[in-house]
Amino acid sequence: MPSPRSPMAAPRSFQWTRRVFLTLLTAFVLLPVYVMVSSSLKPLADVTSGFHWLPSGLTLRPYIDIWSTVPLARYFVNSLVVAGAATVCSVAIAVFAAYAVSRYDFRGKRVFTVTVLSTQMFPGILFLLPLFLLYVNIGNTTGIALFGSRGGLILTYLTFSLPFSIWMLIGYFDSVPRDLDEAALVDGCGPLRALFRVVVPAAVPGIVAVAVYAFMTAWGEVLFASVMTNDTTRTLAVGLQGYSTLNDVYWNQIMAASLVVSVPVVAGFLLLQRYLVAGLTAGAVK
């Protein structure tokens, strides 16, 4: 005898509709991934001749050739250094700035927070020419090579990731009870010691969410990386264009390289997923 349904249970029609919708959504999401994987395992002639759902012959040659067709290893190192440095600097500066805004009252506090948030309204391409001229003039005046260097690209990415990081951490620090700070101060901790020993451990999910956002922003950025870099400092997002030449387009190698360069981001996201979800939803429920 079937057990009686709970009065709060969803109707069967809704359950079947949900299953069908989720199945179609999953297929829609996984279909491009299957095309990439299958194309990366085919010879170039099979990819260019026409698409077949089931490949006639499988080969790992594209995954070997991607390292010699273009200097992918150098692009990988450049992207790792730039994205990693931009992430560390963004998180470090955002922690201090957000803690100051969250815990202290000072003149211009509201103006500062509004200014930080308003920077997200402007499109990135609006800053391309000013930053280009600024870096070139700094290089001509002081000899500090910002244009075409990793350092210049890191500073560029900070202009985009830092405002959002500060704004996000302000909201997260506001959700951390001030009683923790006060208890640490009573126990003899200074403001910095209270920050690193009490507030930061309690705000790990928010800090991880900020770090993931900053890293992903720098890792996949194309516009500024295509203008602010040269042959030695080029990143992966721009270097993938090297598989397209005047004579041919190595589609199978493009697919293979795209899968390889997405591994760090996907792996990091899966490892930090629970922190990321907790950080993004912080302060949603009061």
Automatic annotation (TrEMBL):
Family membership noted in the UniProt record: Belongs to the binding-protein-dependent transport system permease family.
Pfam families in the record: BPD_transp_1 (PF00528)
PROSITE patterns: ABC_TM1
Chief subcellular location: membrane
Keyword field: Cell membrane, Membrane, Transmembrane, Transmembrane helix, Transport
Membrane topology: Multi-pass membrane protein
Protein name: ABC transporter permease
Chain ranges passing through the membrane: 20-37, 75-99, 111-134, 154-173, 194-216, 250-272
Domain ABC transmembrane type-1 intervals: 76-272
Subcellular location: Cell membrane
PANTHER family: INNER MEMBRANE ABC TRANSPORTER PERMEASE PROTEIN YCJP, MALTOSE TRANSPORT SYSTEM PERMEASE-RELATED
InterPro entries xref list: BP-dep_ABC_trans_perm, MetI-like, MetI-like_sf
